[in-house]
Amino acid sequence: MEAGARAERGFGGGLPAWALGLIPLGLIVVAIGGFALLGGPGLGERTGPPLEEVAVERTVLRPGEIELTLRNDGPDPVEVAQVAVNDAYAPFVADGGREIGRLGSTTLRVEYPWIEGEAYEIFVLTSAGGTVEASIPVAAESPENDVSFYALMALLGIYVGVIPVSLGMLWLPFLRRLGPQWMGGLIAFTVGLLAFLAIDAGLEGLELAAEAPAAFGGTGLVFVGGLVAYLLLAGVDAYLGQRSRAAAGPGAGATGAAYLALLVAIGIGLHNLGEGLAIGSAYASGALALGAFLVVGFAIHNTTEGLAIVAPLRDARPSPGRLVGLGLIAGAPAILGAWIGAAAFDPSLGALLFGVGVGAIARVIVQIAPTMRDSQERLLYPVSVAGILAGIAVMYLTGLLVSA
Amino acid sequence: MSNFSFVPEQTDKGISRRSLLGGAALAAPAVAGLALSRGGETAVAGTNGHGAKHAGHSEFPHATFAAGRTVDHKSNGFHPTELLRDFDYGKTRRLASGRVLREWEIVAHDREIEVAPGVTYEAWTYNGRVPGPTLRAQEGELLRVRFVNASEHPHTMHFHGLHSALMDGMPGIGENRGGGQIEPGEDFTYEFDASPFGLHLYHCHVAPLAAHIARGLYGAFVIDPKAGRPEADEMVMVMNGFDTNFDLANEVYAVNTVGFHYVDEPIRVARRSPVRIYLVNVLEYDPVNSFHIHGNFFNYFPTGTSLQPTEFTDTVIQGQAQRGILELEFPYDGDYMFHAHVSEFAELGWSGFFRVGDPSRMTAAAAASMYCDLPWGKGSPA
User: Fold this and answer.
1) How far is A84 from chain B (nearest CA, A)?
2) Does a structural domain hold residue B381?
3) A336-361 pLDDT, tens per residue?
4) What is the pLDDT of residues B284-340, one digit of tens each?
5) Is any Cβ of chain A less than 8 angstroms from the Cβ of B259?
């Protein structure tokens, strides 16, 4: 005991705690600064040609012009020298300058008489002779980002988010007619729906991450987003749970049901944020023909999400206002997502948001799964398994309508 | 020689100062247009419509590099416009037998060159230039080429012509006598007769062959017939390309190395006077190359080994190492494009213009009707 205490005092014993905390930090700063000032002693010159890694973040088509936004993803600066469209050099101007520093970006406006419906392969030739390639599978004029465009995106968000979710919630009276023995199955159905959404969002996020610059995390962003969302929701849940326990016991059952519905709505809302983002960016880049069929497909697909929200409310008596609120929480983020996707689409941001959706849904599943337990406290029993499978099957089948 | 007797009389002769002034009012819009594009980079950007809304086609007369930057020929150490008419006759002396001995020294260097504005390429060169010097001799002479390898890589000079195996510049043959593959720091003297007359080429033959050729180790080799050829404005065009990202496909195509160079600086030729083009294809990675000329026809002498043309045409196709002599005259003033009729190559740099006549002696309106305005004012070598 005595020896231990003395040893403690012997090693910086006289210093306050904050100083002990700062000293290593200071040494790190000095070491790194010295290393940088001396030019990395012992490492020698880096060998080999400069590494050029450039990602094409965004492609916009206007009459007679193709606009490319490039992001330098590598360790060295890159200088854009020339641009060729379909194997023909074309004049261009670089709005952000031709030289792109590390993690910097520039926008090239290339003068080219592109023709609607044709495919284009573009290569950007750097000063070192390297090439950065971009492809436009089907050329179509990109929408102008004006008020009517944002209105259109809002309408799109309402069509694929708010309306179908709200319609789905109208199944509530029907659910009430079902006997209590159906409750576990309904929750299981919701879990199935959510599981499908999580997988779907995860795959979309990974797909986006593949085109995002690796310097910003790439694939890792999906996982980081998922983890952060899961932990945040868990934290919020713990905090709210503490408060509701402290508040009062009576009516706790209804509060619990309303609370579960809210969680489901939040999870679905975060998923729809990512979905709106994907739709908005696909539309803005011309990759998505906004056919009525596709919108109908999304609507049917998302109607099931409304069902998932009201499933926990079978025995509760929520006010109409609360139901509208739940619908908006779940559906309205699609509008926001469409705006972000269309206006400032960035694959890194997209990957992160999809990750957030996955994490949120995972947390919601963990949260509501216990309520599907049967009288023997089993989580998986014939009815619940059938419910989960039915949920996945419904999402899969309605998802076929939107496989654009 | 080709005969252009079918050519009608030119109509825009004798533009006087008076008619130039008189035409000024009428030609005002055209003058304005020319002045804009003449005024340098910013003005060129203006007329090109950068930043302005416009329909693409009219502002996009042909593929070109971005405005505002040109290749630094000084730093390259060679200028395609000068290289065009640069024939290296070497040094001669008469041997006791009365025969002419012609000698050159060729040094291989590694050198970074700019092959398109802003795009550099780690080239391997003969005498610091790509293509290497156009060696020119006369049939029957004795030729000696002292080759010094100052590159970091082994090289040779492999001539197309009649010679012994030792003089073939072929790795694996003749190393025991100092020949074959020439290692860095070594040298070797190739000796052979100038035969047969015609248009030939030389290039490095070290493996990997495609890489050694694509890096820039090639040049034209002209052997004049004993009686010589008729007087003409002679030029050398080596059709080449550069695989700048080393993916075994070329990013830049050209004649004489710099993409679109003769668009920026049209080749000036006199109307109705004979022009002779020594055309060699050294292009690596693509199976064929071609040469096509606008508004004109030429007599074609494949490999230049016969004095009788085989064809009167406006397009020839050449595989790698194929070459031929083109003889033609330009019947009209104006700018005439020449380019690979592999359109992809044309739009990736292998295009140029012949400028026949002198636009500065015409009214702006007359000039605008026959000279392209894009390269206008970017300067000629004068």
Assistant:
1) 8
2) no
3) 988 888 776 778 888 888 888 888 88
4) 999 999 999 999 999 999 999 999 999 999 999 999 999 999 999 999 999 999 999
5) yes
Give the pLDDT confidence of B229-245 residue by residue, as tens digits: 999 999 999 999 999 99
Q: Which domains does chain A have, with CATH numbers?
A: 54-136 (2.60.40.10), 147-402 (no CATH)
Q: What is the total residue count of chain A? A: 404
Question: What is the C-alpha separation between B272 and B294, in angstroms, rounded?
Answer: 16
**Looking at residue B371, what DSSP letter applies?**
S
DSSP label of B165: G
Quote the CA–CA distance of B199 and B301 in Å, as a whole number: 9
Q: Where are the alpha helices (DSSP H) in A72-182?
A: 147-157, 163-169, 172-177
Write the ipTM. 0.79
Sign of the torsion angle spanned by Cα atoms A378, A383, A386, A387: negative
B121 CB near a chain A CB, below 8 Å? Answer: yes
Interface of B with A in 62-101 (CB under 8 A): 63-67
Q: How far is A207 from chain B (nearest CA, A)?
A: 26
CATH code of the domain in which B148 resides: 2.60.40.420
Alpha helix (H) residue ranges in B171-235: 209-214
Query: C-alpha distances in angstroms, A243 versus A229, A360, B126?
Result: 21, 21, 83
Give the domain range for residue B207: 73-224
The distance from CA A138 to its chain's CA centroid, rounded to whole angstroms, is 25
**Cβ contacts of A90 on chain B, cutoff 8 Å:** 60, 63-64, 66
Residue of B nearest to A66 (CA): B56
Separation CA A191–CA A366 (nearest Å): 9
Q: Give the residue numbers in A contacting B (CB under 8 Å), as ranges.
A: 63-65, 79, 81-84, 87-93, 98, 109, 111-114, 123, 125-131
Query: Which of A86, A89, A132 is best to mutate for the B interface (most B CBs within 10 A)?
Result: A89
Q: Which of B161, B130, B147 lies closest to B284, judged by CA?
A: B130
Backbone angles phi, psi at B125, to 5 degrees: -130, 155
CB contact under 8 A, A89 and B65: yes
Closest residue to B50, CB basis, from A63, A111, A113: A111
Cβ atoms < 10 Å from Cβ of B302: 17
pTM above 0.80? no
Closest CA to A226 of A44, A360, A333, A69: A360
Query: For residue B340, is it within any domain?
Result: no
Tell me if B336 sits within 8 A of B330, measured CB to CB: yes
B303 shares contact with chain A (CB less than 8 Å):
no
Identify the CA nearest to B251 among candidates B284, B207, B291: B284
Rounded Cα gap, residues B185 and A267, in angstroms: 72
Contacts of A84 in chain B (CB under 8 A): 63, 251, 347-348
Cβ contact A87–B48 (<8 Å): no
- Side-chain half-sphere CA neighbours of B212 within 13 A: 21
Q: Whose structure tokens read 């000279």? A: B371
Q: CB of B14 within 8 Å of any CB in chain A?
A: no
Q: Regarding predicted confidence, which is higher, B274 or A349?
A: B274
Q: Is there a domain that residue B1 lies in?
A: no
Identity at B81, one-letter amino acid code? T
Using alpha carbons, list the distances in angstroms from residue A240 to A237, A245, A260, A263, B202: 5, 9, 12, 12, 83
| Domains in chain B, number | 1
- Rounded to a whole number of angstroms, the distance between the first and last alpha carbons of chain B is 30
Q: What angle do CA B312, B317, B318 make, to 5 degrees?
A: 120
The residue that leads in pLDDT, B12 or A101, is A101
Contact partners, residue A4, CB within 8 Å, separation at least 6: none
